[in-house]
């Protein structure tokens, strides 16, 4: 005789087996190296939890992307790259690059734009990677017959759009940046009167000269990328995809755009029905701290300042580190600083340097008073989530723009340049955000708004990815506007026709009036002539 308990567990098992199995899908993931990978992996792990099967395309020379995994399949794309670097070499190279390129105190807009364009141009090395991929007949055959339901891609490189076009699969983008610009500019109306372009350093309230700058900058990006960057990709897509669609048009035809943006943070702007905002998807309730951190945090009477400059910049030139350490030493608060370089002699006894820190968990601790940060996307959202005001030191990329948005909302103070930072600047800025409660209040307000959402952003990302698989895309959400020729999109043909019609009418009216005037006036004139 089976005991009641055994019977119960057997029936429970039967019950579980009889539940309708959730539909699982096969997803091909095209990631981008570095912090982009860390982000997309969060979504991937969530999709794996829902029992979808994931395959990731990994270039053999990538630095941060996993080359083996228990959780997902990996297809290595062999790349012949004579300049391949190790991760340490890359980080050293990146440090040197950052040190020599970090935002100078008052850069001209033009020099920022030029640097941005140079970065985009180096990005076109993706062309050789893609040729390697499409020439690899075995691999392409395997991908073609694997029965994928969907391509999930980071839009920062063109691999995703090209592969989804080649494999004729629905495409879900995860990210905000195309090689050239914020994808919004390619798919949604983006009035330059209040939507700032990257590196413009302006907010959504622009003066006349700021609007001028925004327009000129956008024109510069448009011309340089449309003439010098995208044609290289278009050549590839002609060769390997046999399509006349330009790569830009493929970007406009994705099914779902999962944008790492939240309007708590970004300035409101027009958008499209297939754009899903998932800013802050990486944030989680803080977990208990390791003992080393817990004791330090709990026993700090004046509170703690958390200081990190991101994944790549773990160290600094010694003269800058000395200056910063001297500033931190003057604070009554304690400081946890992620720093692996040589210990500066000015380091105070209130400052703890660590090789790594559990950033989100530390920001969630009630004793945390301020976050000294470079303004990278992850850190910014973690600070918003936890309601901790920021002292920002922007270094490169979109960091200045990120911090500018928080500053405009009264939730951050910005130090203009890492290179010229003095201990005094550090002390003043930290004192300001801690002693003036408006910064903390503003950030707490943002935090409340950010968390007050019907569906957490990561769940939304999973839902819309599955949605695209269930329905073979999201064609009903794609606006036709993006398939129109530009003269139709801007109604230039209609405007021209209207102008012509009005001109013809005016001309006719003028002719009629002239005729009437001649009839009524000219006889008089001729009588006058006769009298003469
Ligand atoms: C830390 O340094 C300050 C002055 O620099 C000193 O007053 C204080 O006693 C020191 N604290 C500890 C725990 O050593
Ligand atoms: C900023 O620092 C750089 C190099 O460290 C120096 O050449 C420059 O003169 C400094 N600028 C100012 C305004 O202090
Ligand atoms: C925060 O929100 C409250 C109302 O919810 C408002 O009264 C207060 O002014 C806001 N504080 C800041 C600094 O924006």
Automatic annotation (TrEMBL):
Matching entries from Pfam families are given as:
UDPGT (PF00201)
One GO cellular component term, please give it. membrane
- Membrane-spanning regions, if any? 486-510
**The keyword Signal belongs to this UniProt entry's keyword annotation:** yes
E.C. numbers? 2.4.1.17
Q: Where is the signal peptide?
A: 1-24
The answer to whether UniProt assigns keyword Endoplasmic reticulum to this entry is no
Source domain of life is Eukaryota
MF-aspect GO terms: glucuronosyltransferase activity
Lipid bilayer topology: Single-pass membrane protein
> According to the UniProt record, what class of enzyme is this?
transferase
Q: What is its main location?
A: membrane
The entry's family comment says: Belongs to the UDP-glycosyltransferase family.
Q: What is this protein called?
A: UDP-glucuronosyltransferase
